[in-house]
Amino acid sequence: MSEEFTGRASAARPDGPSRRGFLRGAGLAGAGLVAGTGAARAASPDPLITEVQPWAQFLGDGVDAAPYGKPSRHEAHVIRRNVEWLTADTSSSVNFTPIHELDGIITPNGVCFERHHAGVADIAPQDYRLMINGLVDRELVFTLQDLLRLPRENHVYFLECAANSGMEWRGAQLNGAQFTHGMIHNCMYTGVTLRTLLNEAGVKPEGSWLLAEGADASAMSRSIPMEKALDDCMIAFKMNGEALRPEQGYPVRLVVPGWEGNMWVKWLRRLEVGDAPWHHREETSKYTDLLADGRARRFTWEMHAKSVITNPSPQAPILHGHGPTVITGLAWSGVGKIARVDVSLDGGRNWQQARLSGPSFDKSLHRFYFEFDWDGRELLLQSRAIDDAGYVQPTKDALRDFRGVSSVYHNNGIQTWHVHSNGEAENVEVS
Ligand code: MTE
Ligand code: CO
């Protein structure tokens, strides 16, 4: 891109040769493209190009203004939000990731949704202890310093609360991807595998289950089969490169890749090896899914393939009018990678393959795009994820046929947004 294009040169000499230089530059840039998308407007006099703007007239903040940086003040609306009527108290509640404002696959730490049963525990790193006991050769206690002496790994995983989309079982309810699908985040975790930790303690042959316990008032005790623990579980002390946020379990949380969020015990303080799941803690040891016939499914830990279009969506209408339009969204599977995402503009009658972009990791969010020329037609937008095990994301009706409408958990049905001709979008269902 030519120097004239940076704006600084043209701002310094609004009426001088640089303006002509800018137009010339624009012409050259245009000539270099084979065929434009039509996304830009034709160059015409615009004070934002030709006039010196305030931000070029004065010095800005110095390097001491923000020792820990924050997003631009113009992005102040990009925040976690909660739904007040959902819970009686905010300390046993949930807020939602603003997925309609994000791109790529990584969730910035400050907007990772929070789900607490007893609020955020505030633990000083020097007071942190992790105990391993039960059916082990050596009962052990680790300080944070001890954990930092063990070999580390880095992995990107999504965490989805089993209750994500749970309010939508009986019909379209919440008007925004943030609220229907925002109980999810995707971070790079740095930590130590449970395999490494459990090897230190030596699991006895009959040790087939693990109880994980949090240090907060809820304890959040969860039973995890030893097979999963030794497969890919880890304890993490860093997320996206920095220390875990207090909300996410500082200083250490459990990472249970691809499995429902409630097992990812935060403020982890104890791992007990046993020979059975902890039935005496039945009421808290797992979630269940109530079926159409009144029976309940248990131990439904895996999060099945799911996707959602984040833009456009009710909180993110199409603002630019007709013409080139980018549809984007997220897809994920607790089983592995996403092999393909399809997009429908007409409520699932016709499907076209979307474009995946960005790294494709196991049990991680995947980003998809679908570019098309919008003529102002009303749309019934849907996305459908297919994972590398061949599982195809079901419609909501197909799910209800099997699961009824009394469930809260594991709603991975296809979401529909009705896009009106003015670009506004609405949560609807089609059948
Ligand atoms: N761990 C503890 N100790 N206490 C909790 O309340 N909530 C669980 C899980 N781990 C919880 C916990 C639930 S239900 C979910 S969905 C995830 O943490 C949410 O993780 P997050 O707050 O990082 O989004
Ligand atoms: Co949860």
Topology (elements, then pairings):
Blueprint (H helix, E strand, L loop, with lengths): L7 H5 L4 H16 L14 H4 L3 H4 L23 E2 L10 E4 L18 E2 L13 E5 L5 E3 L1 H4 L5 E8 L16 H5 L2 E10 H8 L7 E6 L7 E4 H6 L2 E6 L2 E2 L9 E3 L12 E7 L7 H4 L2 E3 L5 E3 L7 E6 L11 E10 L5 E7 L7 E2 L1 E3 L8 E9 L4 E9 L8 H8 L12 E4 L5 E4 L3
Parallel strand pairs: 4-13
Antiparallel strand pairs: 1-2, 2-3, 4-5, 6-7, 7-10, 8-9, 8-13, 10-11, 10-12, 14-15, 16-17, 17-21, 18-19, 18-22, 20-21, 22-23, 23-24
Bound molecules: ligand MTE, cobalt (II) ion
Structural class: alpha+beta
Strand order in the sheet with the most strands? 5-4-13-8-9
Model regions low in confidence, pLDDT < 50 over at least 5 residues: 1-32, 280-285
Given the structure, what is the number of helices? 10
Mean pLDDT: 90
